Amino acid sequence: MKSYRKELWFEVPARRAFINITPQVIEALRESGIREGLCLVNAMHISASVFINDDESGLHGDLERWLEKLAPEKPHSQYAHNVGEDNADAHLKRTIMGREVVVAVTAGKLDFGPWERIFYGEFDGRRRKRVLVKIVGE
């Protein structure tokens, strides 16, 4: 069995964003040479997420509004975590959206449903963060 590891780095200028990272993951898979196996993609920061969904702007807006209702950024004082920082909402949003995804690799390709894409969800941007891509298989 082979194993391949790659880090993807992001520095989002805004506090929140959804970034389609499918092309970078496909490139990592190509670099790995693995044809059959599994591809793990996970956020390496506790205020960011990796998830799979449709690349559709209306859905992204719906997700943003839904997350803000569940864990509003302000007032910062509503959170016990926000002592000396203001990102408690980002930690909660990450918990809701998840840490990682695993995608099957079949015939050298990500084995997706028709509209599935991999996204990096940033909830406390304005600094460098990374995503791990780990591919195992033959």
Average predicted local confidence, pLDDT: 97
Number of DSSP E strands: 8
Q: Which CATH top level class fits?
A: Mainly Beta
Largest sheet: 5 strands, antiparallel
Radius of gyration: 16 Å
The N- and C-terminal alpha carbons lie at a distance of 5 Å
Number of domains: 1
CATH fold call: Jelly Rolls
Strand order of the largest sheet: 1-8-3-5-6
Shape: elongated
Kindly describe this structure.
- By secondary structure, the chain is an alpha+beta fold.
- It has a single domain (2-137), classed as Jelly Rolls (Sandwich).
- The chain has 3 helices and 8 strands.
- It has helices spanning 22-32, 57-70, 88-97; strands at 2-11, 17-20, 37-43, 48-53, 100-106, 109-110, 117-122, 128-137.
- The strands form 2 sheets. Strands 1-8-3-5-6 form a 5-stranded antiparallel beta sheet, covered by helices on one side.
Keywords:
38% strand, single chain, three-stranded antiparallel sheet, 25% helix, Jelly Rolls, 138 residues, alpha+beta, 3 helices, elongated, five-stranded antiparallel sheet
Question: Short summary of the structure?
Answer:
Helix content is 25%, strand content 38%.
Q: How are the secondary structure elements laid out?
A:
Layout: E1 2-11, E2 17-20, H1 22-32, E3 37-43, E4 48-53, H2 57-70, H3 88-97, E5 100-106, E6 109-110, E7 117-122, E8 128-137
Antiparallel strand pairs: 1-8, 2-7, 3-5, 3-8, 4-7, 5-6
